[in-house]
Structures are given as C-alpha cells and as structure tokens.
Amino acid sequence: MRHSSNLNLGWLSAFDAAARHLNFTKAAQELGLSQGAVSLQIQKLEKALSASLFERRGRHVVLTDEGYAYHPHVQEALEALSQTTSRMFSRQTRNNVSIACYSPAFVEFCLTPLIPDMMRDIPELELTLTIDYQANHTRFDKDDLVIGYGSGDAASFVPLVQETVTAVCTPAYLEQHGGKWGQCVLIECAGPRVAWPQWCAATGIAGPLDGRVVEVNSLAAAIRLARAGAGVSLAAKPFILEDLQKGALVEAFSGKCLPGKMHGFAAQQLENARPIAKRVARWLLERSGRSIPSYL
Questions:
Q1: 232-236 vs 258-266, strand pairing mode
Q2: Burial class (CB in 10 A: 0-12, 13-18, 19+), 57
Q3: Residue 4 has pLDDT above 60, yes or no
Q4: Each residue of 174-191: pLDDT tens digit?
Q5: Which run of H or E residues covers position 128?
Q6: What is the C-alpha separation between 283 and 145, in angstroms, rounded?
Q7: How far, in Å, are 6, 54, 109, 118, 161 from residue 147 at the CA level?
Q8: If we measure between CA atoms, which residue out of 283, 249, 274, 282 comes closest to residue 98?
Q9: How big is the chain by its Cα radius of gyration, in Å?
C-alpha cells in the first residue's frame, strides 16, 4: 500500500458519493462528473490502497467489508474539511467564532452574561455557541474554541474558571430544618462533580446523611431546585455568586467549601486558533482575571 499522503481528494470524494448512493451514476450526477470519471477515480483509489472497495453486480454495486469499514472515516474527514474550510474562508463566517462548552451551567451563569460586553468590545464578532457534554473530547476539529472541564493540568490546559463546591439552600429552608438538613432533601449533580458523602468527608461535616436524594444531570437544574426551596444542593460558587449576594440562597455551612475542577481551554487548540478566536479567548481570560499565554 502506498503512503496515505498520496491519496487524491477527488478519489476520496468519488468513493464517498458512490458509497452513499451505492450507484456510480447517481454519484457522478452529485459530483458533476461522468460515470466513467467516477469509476476511474475509484479504481485509482483501490489501486493506491491495494484493496477492493466495491463489488460490481451488474448495474449495481455494494461495499466490500473493507469499503464498509473505510467509508465512515472518509465521510467524517471530508465533512471536517468542509466545515473547517467554510469556517476559515467563507465571507459569511470569517468573523464567526464557534465555541463549544461542556457545561450548560457554565454557559448560563458565566459565559452568557459576558456576551453583550464581548460583542461591544469586538464589534465585527459573530458567535456560534454549542453546549455538548462530549466537548472535552470530540469537538476540537469542529469548533474554534472548546471550553472543557478538567483538573487543570498546566501543560495542556488554560484555566478560565475554577469551581468551588458548597452546600446551599434558601434562607427559609435553612431556618425550617436547621441542623437536621442531612435528614431532609439532598440535591446533587450526577457525573464528574462531587457527591454528598465525598463533600462531607472532605469538609469535615459530621452528621447522618439519610435524607432523600434528588439527583440531576445538570448543575443548573440543581441550582434551580435549591432556589425553589426543594432542598439543600451542592453547587459551584462561580455559578451562585449572584444568588448569594442577593440572599436568594445561603450557604448551609458558611465557609465550608471544596475546591473543584476547572473550566478552560485546551492549550494546543488555543495556540493554533485563528486570530479572531484568539481575541475572544484573550478577552474571556482578561475578564476572568487569569494570566494570558504569550501566544495570545
């Protein structure tokens, strides 16, 4: 087999179209080529790979095992190339910065309130904002900036906001239940965030935890439940500062906090970002009071 760098993009496009349609004529119509040209492109690809990708059955074709396994990878690569090209060179999207965030709570409580000022300070900016629980691992080729959630390894992570986990409820709920809060309703967030037993052990809070548990997969939902007076919730301080300042929520144990994980950028992606995306990242870091990497 020849080295993959010898593969022609036209060959891969022809293979993708033929694999989707299972018909060389329809593939040719989609690509604006003759059927013979599509067939020739695929023959060249098969020769380069030393593998048969289709079985010809009269006027019909079917994918071989190798073709069936290869096609999703080719399709994904062509789509990624198309999206990147459009994002970088289209007149309509040249000033658009796409941001993917792992956490809906981060978007709602930290990022969204900053967007009006950001749009004012970067007047040519357009934004595409996506919330994706898989953003930590799967969106680096799709978006200009990915704000992930992790431990904050200095070599690969540029921290933006650190969570500090505390227990909160409404003032009325705390007044009603007092020291028996652990026997009432305990709200926690499923996933990578800390649960009640771990939080109590780490903060030195003693007492039984035999109350009913409400578990949700959204920290924003856990905060809303606490606001509604449903119970005592574990919440991250950056997201509840306004509620604490206004008195809508209070800490069940003042000063009892547990340092949590961080929201931030992947350093490698940030270093290789487009200039306008770097401006957005620099703006967010400045507003968060964080140090600015030299490459920004």
A1: unpaired
A2: exposed
A3: no
A4: 999 877 777 889 999 988
A5: strand 126-131
A6: 13
A7: 35, 41, 14, 16, 10
A8: 274
A9: 26
Residues 115, 120, 121: CA angle, nearest 5 degrees: 100
DSSP state of 194: P
Q: What is the pLDDT of residues 60-114, one digit of tens each?
A: 789 999 999 999 999 999 988 887 777 666 645 678 899 988 888 899 999 999 9
Nearest 5°: phi and psi at 65? Answer: -60, -40
- Region for residue 199 given its phi and psi (left: phi exceeds 0; alpha: psi -120 to 50; beta: otherwise): alpha
pLDDT digits (tens, 9 = 90+) for 263-273: 998 888 888 88
Whether 239 and 189 have beta carbons less than 8 Å apart is answered as no
pLDDT given for residue 5 in this prediction: 57
Beta bridge mates, 162 = 262
The span from the CA of 145 to the CA of 157, in Å, is 13
Specify the DSSP class assigned to residue 26. Answer: H
Quick one: angle between helices 9-21 and 35-49, nearest 10? Answer: 110
User: What's the average model confidence in pLDDT over 249-258?
Assistant: 90
- Helices 65-89 and 9-21 pack at an angle, to 10 degrees, of 120
Nearest by Cα to 95 from 130, 129, 126: 126
- State the Cα torsion 198-200-201-202 to the nearest 10°: 80
Mean pLDDT of the chain: 87
Mean pLDDT of 146-159: 79
| pLDDT score recorded for residue 92 | 53
Pairwise CA distance, residues 25 & 156, whole Å: 48
Tokens of 215: 């578990």
What the block records as the tokens of 45 is 């690809």
Is the pTM higher than 0.70? The answer reads no
Position 7 scores a pLDDT of: 86
Please provide the distance, in angstroms rounded to a whole number, between the alpha carbons at the two ends of the chain. Answer: 42
